[in-house]
């Protein structure tokens, strides 16, 4: 779809979701982790778990099919199981094909976890869009308070989670590729469910779901090099300039022209990483009057010159002339 902005963002920020471990446990159990960086997800394939992490007052109760996404947390404590006796310490195992996981009893709690790796643009966009902990329910059922769309999205989270677990527990041809794809699809379904189930904080994720601002967003994304002004963007959304500017800032967290400038830099980063386009041509394509104006804007936003960024992103040593 031409206006599928979430897919566009996923492509630009190069989201990679990686499953890193899992376990099956019966009886009282506890699992801990420290040194967490970036985004981490905890998914309950079956059973239940209680999750605690820094910066969150009350524990999260996770049911089968639920996913918790931890954003910038430093530690986690998960526990579950029923019965008498002390809690047994369990650690996630990378070898998902072990007979202990494959042969997990019906009353076992099965939990998988992983981390989401992002490029610089992805960290700036995705980490800002999510709260410290995002709880996505995979067990929602239609009722008076639940829309059919929400229930369908929850079912998709649950289905993707089970397909992912099926791949990691079976030694089949192509499983490594499938695990990467399902891991990324799981993150996509989690974001969709999060949009449906939660009042989003200001940011690009909330902006993508705002129907009133979508026409203006489509203009900026489809033709980022045009000199869009507030009048053009407000007219596209059938709003006055004042109302448009206020609503955009409330939804996106930044003024519309600041968003446009940052979006241009995100596109520039991808072009510099992935292609051999000349900086002058890229500047003209993105609407800058000169290569110098573009380089100044890029350095102000990214922290280094376009050429130095290109060499660093490709793991090469930058020549002296690229330092300016």
TrEMBL record:
Residues of the HTH araC/xylS-type domain: 214-312
Coiled-coil portions: none
Signal peptide bounds: none
Originating species: Streptomyces montanisoli
Molecular functions (GO terms): DNA-binding transcription factor activity; sequence-specific DNA binding
UniProtKB keywords: DNA-binding, Transcription, Transcription regulation
Keyword Transcription regulation belongs to the record: yes
InterPro entries, alphabetized: AraC_lig, AraC_XylS_family_regulators, Homeodomain-like_sf, HTH_AraC, HTH_AraC-typ_CS, Tscrpt_reg_AraC-type_HTH
Protein name from the UniProt record: AraC family transcriptional regulator
Keyword Manganese: no
């Amino acid at each position: 779809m031409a206006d599928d902005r979430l897919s566009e963002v996923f492509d630009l920020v190069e989201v990679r979701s990686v499953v890193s471990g899992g376990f099956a446990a019966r009886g009282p159990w506890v699992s801990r982790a420290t040194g967490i960086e970036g985004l981490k997800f905890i998914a309950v394939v079956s059973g239940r778990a209680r999750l605690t992490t820094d910066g969150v007052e009350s524990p999260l109760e996770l049911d089968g099919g639920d996913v918790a996404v931890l954003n910038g947390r430093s530690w986690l404590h998960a526990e579950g199981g029923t019965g008498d006796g002390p809690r047994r310490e369990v650690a996630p195992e990378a070898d998902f094909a072990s007979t202990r996981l494959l042969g997990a009893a019906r009353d076992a709690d099965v939990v998988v976890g992983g981390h989401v790796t992002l490029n610089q643009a992805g960290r700036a966009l995705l980490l800002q869009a999510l709260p410290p902990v995002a709880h996505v329910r995979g067990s929602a059922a239609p009722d008076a308070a639940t829309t059919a769309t929400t229930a369908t999205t929850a079912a998709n989270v649950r289905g993707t989670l089970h397909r992912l677990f099926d791949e990691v527990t079976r030694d089949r041809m192509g499983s490594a590729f499938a695990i990467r794809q399902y891991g990324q699809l799981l993150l996509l379904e989690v974001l969709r469910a999060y949009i449906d189930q939660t009042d989003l904080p200001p940011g690009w994720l909330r902006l993508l779901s705002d129907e009133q601002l979508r026409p203006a967003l489509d203009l900026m994304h489809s033709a980022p090099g045009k000199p869009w002004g507030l009048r053009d963007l407000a007219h596209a959304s059938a709003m006055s300039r004042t109302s448009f500017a206020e609503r955009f800032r409330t939804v996106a967290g930044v003024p519309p022209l600041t968003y446009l400038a940052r979006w241009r830099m995100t596109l520039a980063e991808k072009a510099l990483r992935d292609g051999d386009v000349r900086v002058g041509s890229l500047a003209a394509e993105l609407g800058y009057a000169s290569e110098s104006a573009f380089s100044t804007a890029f350095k102000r936003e990214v922290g280094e010159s376009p050429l130095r960024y290109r060499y660093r992103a490709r793991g090469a040593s930058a020549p002296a002339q690229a330092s300016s």
